[in-house]
Design the sequence.
């Protein structure tokens, strides 16, 4: 069965600092992996996705993530945090062979300090 | 292009009542999925429909049902509401087996 673990329910960084949000997954088949962001009282917005092409994936707003099969990880990074990045971030896995239902992690709330 | 739309945005019901939530997918998308997001947790998969047929069902009781219409819009129905059904209900659409795009959600409060 698929599962996603996001290490750290809350992450706090200073404005301009590196953002690193951790995600580990388990999957019995090659996975598709996603990062979504959720701002307060809103739905989910797709940041980026990995679908078995390049292992380093670039997304919107300078976010990127690297798929590491040996570590079963898909960590999200951004070189320089901006105040507007404060939100909740969800990592999700999908096994396309079983339909494209998404299994989400519990989420990480990112706080950006000025 | 318009994104995924959901109605209503907010809803208050009492225990035992029934609720219907509606979703319109992105134009051209044929698949709709429903997720429940309880406060403080990640979304949980409820249903997926593709071309009006159920393609997947999550671990939810039979009180939850859904359908997809010929225009690919969808309804999620929940009967005999419980306090624990209070959540944000998210609808997502995709063209097929591809990336899912989410709507703003319907926030349901059961009193």
Sequence:
């Amino acid at each position: 069965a698929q599962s996603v673990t996001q290490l750290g329910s809350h992450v706090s960084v200073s404005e301009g600092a590196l953002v690193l949000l951790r995600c580990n997954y388990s999957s019995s088949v090659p996975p598709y992996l996603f990062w979504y962001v959720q701002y307060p009282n809103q739905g989910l917005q797709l940041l980026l996705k990995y679908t078995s092409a390049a292992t380093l994936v670039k997304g919107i707003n300078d976010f990127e993530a690297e798929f590491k099969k040996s570590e079963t990880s898909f960590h999200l990074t951004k070189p320089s945090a901006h105040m507007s990045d404060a939100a909740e971030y969800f990592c999700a896995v999908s096994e396309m062979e079983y339909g494209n239902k998404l299994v989400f992690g519990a989420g990480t709330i990112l706080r950006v300090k000025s | 292009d318009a994104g995924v739309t959901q109605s209503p945005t907010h809803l208050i019901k009492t225990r035992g009542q029934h609720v219907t939530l509606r979703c319109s997918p992105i134009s051209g998308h044929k698949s709709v999925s429903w997720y429940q997001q309880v406060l403080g947790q990640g979304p949980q998969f409820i249903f997926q429909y593709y071309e009006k047929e159920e393609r997947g069902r999550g671990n939810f009781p039979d009180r939850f049902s859904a359908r997809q219409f010929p225009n690919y819009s969808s309804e999620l129905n929940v009967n005999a509401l419980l306090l624990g059904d209070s959540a944000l209900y998210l609808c997502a659409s995709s063209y097929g087996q591809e990336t899912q795009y989410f709507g703003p959600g319907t926030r349901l409060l059961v009193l």
Notes: The interface with chain A takes residues 4, 31, 33, 35, 41-45, 48, 55-56, 58, 90, 92, 94, 97-105, 107 of chain B (CB under 8 Å). The CA atoms of residues 11 and 108 of chain B lie 5 Å apart. Chain B has a mean pLDDT of 94.
